[in-house]
Amino acid sequence: MEFPKESWKEASPESQGVNPKKLNEAMDYLAGVSGQQGNRQALVIRNGFVIWKGDETDNLHTVWSVSKSFTSTVLGLLVDEGKCTLDTKAAQYVPFLEEMYPDVTLRHLTTMTSGYCAVGNPPGGAGSLTPFVPAKPLYKPGEKYFYNNDGMHVLAYALTRIAGEPLKDIFRRRIADPVGIKNWEWRDFGVIDGILVNGGTDNIGVGVSITAEGMARLGHLFLNRGNWDGKQLISAEWIRQATSVQVPADLPELPYLPMYSDANHALGSGIYGFNWWVNGTKANGERNWKHAPPGTFYASGLNNNMCCVVPEWNLVFVRLGTDCSVKNSEYDIFWKIMSKAIAEYV
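Predicted structure:
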């Protein structure tokens, strides 16, 4: 397995066991369903070598809900250190939760099962401008699943209080610097109660911005179970848990905004881990992506920002952009072509 230094090493698809014609077919298909920006911010990496690369992979911009996977990675680091557990109650560190949310745990927040609701967020809404002003709970903790941006900001606030420092500083020191992510940002709410609080996601301009090449480094770290060229940066056990199904397939879901109804992401029962999406099986018995290997997992954000990891293929796929969202069924076609690129290589 190769690990990038200053830049990624490139190799021919053939040298990494991939049919170049089928690979190009898959990437052309992706371009056709991805809006004007197409595949220009896309990368395909196998065995640590870039085998396909767009011409704008160094563009820096927000990745919207991909930011959630950064937040849960910091949660994993704090769990590894013993500073908290998944069952730590958030109200221990977030006083405004004490009255209406005393039993909400970090696990509930990272799996979207907390029932948290903030003032100003309409039913099925994407979040409010006042995520730290609690409203009446949507449901009891663990009772249902609801894709919850306000809850992610509460998680980020709790983790900041647990750590005693901003999440960006932890991520830079423990992950970004060791793996060589240089061009990135993690915006914030400013100083709250004496400490700077980064956003838990980016629905209101407080999340992560990164390039496709930088994003691929985080994907490669997760592909290698937290080990970067011989150094364990985050525990393999955390990686295993974060990228496994943590929301039961039969857990009831609250409806979300119509704009996400067939797109990559709002309904997570059976296919959601700790802020990573998983190629699990839904309540209807169907796999999330039937043409991708079962072990596939990914970070996903608005406007077709994706970082997909396929352990069975030793592969990382990244597509970033700012222009459109892609239907889940369209991504399944992409994976169908990609599977042929690997299976049909001679």
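Summary: The longest strand covers residues 305-310.
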